[in-house]
User: What shape does this take?
Amino acid sequence: MDDFQALLNEISRHQVAAGDSEPSNYEKFLDAILKGKHPPFCELVWTGEAFHIVLQLHFQRAPQIAGALEPRAEAYRRKAWRSFRKVRPDKQRLMQIRVTIKDYLPVTAEISVAPEAAGLFRLETTQLTEFQNP
Assistant: This one.
C-alpha cells in the first residue's frame, strides 16, 4: 500500500470513528484527486483551509492569422458569449472570470469564486461542467 492510499484509509477510519456525516474540505480535495470528481480541464487548489476548483474553458485553437474576420471568428465569439451569458446576475459579482484572447479571439477562460465571496458561494462541479458543455 502506498502512502497516498494509507492516508485515505486513515481519513476514512477517522471519519467513521468520529461519526462525521460531512467530509472536511481536505477530504473532498483528496476525493476529487482520487476519483476524478472535477471537470476535465481545471485546477484543484488546496489553500490550507479551503478546497477550490478553478475551471479552464477551452473555446478553440487560435488561428495562426491575425485577420480574425473569417466566418469562424464570429462563431468563436458567440460560443464564449453563450458560456458567460448563463451566469445569473446574483452570481456575477461572486465569480472571477479571466479570458485569454489570442489573435483577437477568445481562446480559454479561467473561472473561480471571488476571494471575498468564498464563504458565501461555492461553485458546484455540475455548474462548472455546464460551462464546458454549452
In short: The chain has five helices and four strands. The first strand starts at residue 42 and ends at 46. The chain has a mean pLDDT of 76. The first helix runs from residue 3 to 18.
